[in-house]
Specification:
MetI-like fold
């Protein structure tokens, strides 16, 4: 007598526990990261700590006048004071919050504008693609820093105007990259199958195309952050960026530039902070690009 087959139709399916294997995989990838990537990650983490906890770390207020003009290093003022008697160490710490925060906000907005328009152009094609592409070509034909200087001179140097103007100008680069990588995915079979199933445009953009182009966009976010960060610092150095008394590394270089004539390296401190963060982000982006490219390290 043979055993009756088990009835699987009424079998109770156990809830699947959360899958946490991605966390160990990420940790293993970090452990195999080169020293340059670790250096970049550590530097970025330190900058973020200073930016987030600036009021708790800084010994004085952002615009507080605590001493005489151009006090020397040491004593109550570890890095001396500026031309108004404000503590330079405190302004460096608050400058991390202002400069990095505005750069991150601007880069995020530029990716929202350029990324969405790039996806629309790649999916819809036709005259919409041509119209958006030609408008981007016109904007890219004008040097970005000169165009930003002109627009800020017309509309004013408020933080809102600064963020909007740089985000719109920088979104042209994001548009070009998003459109280029998305056009390689739009022609694939699974996107056509989603269209035949009647999926909406938003679904195709967010569920079918975006996950397949995310690695180059993430890497581009790091690179664009560096360019936006340097652009904001350059505009502040020229007097049309972040306005005083708000602490900003670009304006701090301009305000203390005269000390170079007396052999004082104080103006190089904010300039060095700008350069160090730019190098650190580039190290991390290079490592991320290498990991997502599928290439293996030579042993």
């Amino acid at each position: 007598m043979s055993a009756e087959p088990a009835d699987v139709s009424n079998a109770v399916t156990e809830p699947v526990p959360p899958h946490w294997s991605s966390l160990p995989a990420a940790w293993r990838a970090l452990k195999r990261a080169p020293p340059s990537a670790w250096f970049g990650l550590v530097v970025i983490a330190i900058y973020l700590v200073f930016a987030i906890f600036a009021p708790l770390i800084a010994p004085y207020g952002e615009a507080e006048i605590v001493g005489g003009a151009y006090e020397e290093w040491g004593g109550d003022y570890l890095l001396g004071t500026d031309q108004l008697g404000r503590d330079l160490l405190s302004r460096l710490i608050f400058g991390a919050r202002n400069t990095i925060g505005i750069a991150v906000l601007t880069t995020t907005l530029s990716f929202m504008i350029g990324g969405v328009l790039g996806l629309f152009a790649a999916i819809l094609g036709g005259w919409i693609d041509q119209l958006l592409a030609r408008a981007v070509d016109i904007l890219m034909a004008i040097p970005q820093l000169i165009f930003a200087l002109m627009l800020l001179s017309i509309f004013g140097s408020s933080i809102i105007n600064l963020v909007l103007i740089i985000a719109v100008l920088d979104s042209t680069r994001v548009f070009r990259l998003t459109r280029a990588v998305a056009m390689n995915v739009v022609v694939l079979d699974f996107v056509e199958a989603a269209r035949l199933q009647g999926e909406r445009l938003g679904w195709i953009m967010t569920r079918e195309i975006l996950p397949n182009i995310l690695p180059p966009l993430v890497a581009e976010f790091g690179l664009r952050f560096c360019f936006v960060f340097l652009t904001i610092a350059a505009l502040s150095f020229l007097g049309l960026g972040i306005q005083p008394p708000t602490a900003d590394w670009g304006s701090m270089v301009r305000e203390n530039a005269t000390l170079i004539n007396y052999g004082d390296v104080t103006p190089l401190l904010p300039a060095g902070a700008i350069a160090l963060l730019t190098v650190a982000v580039n190290f991390v982006v290079d490592w991320f690009l290498h990991k997502t490219s599928g290439l293996r390290d030579e042993r």
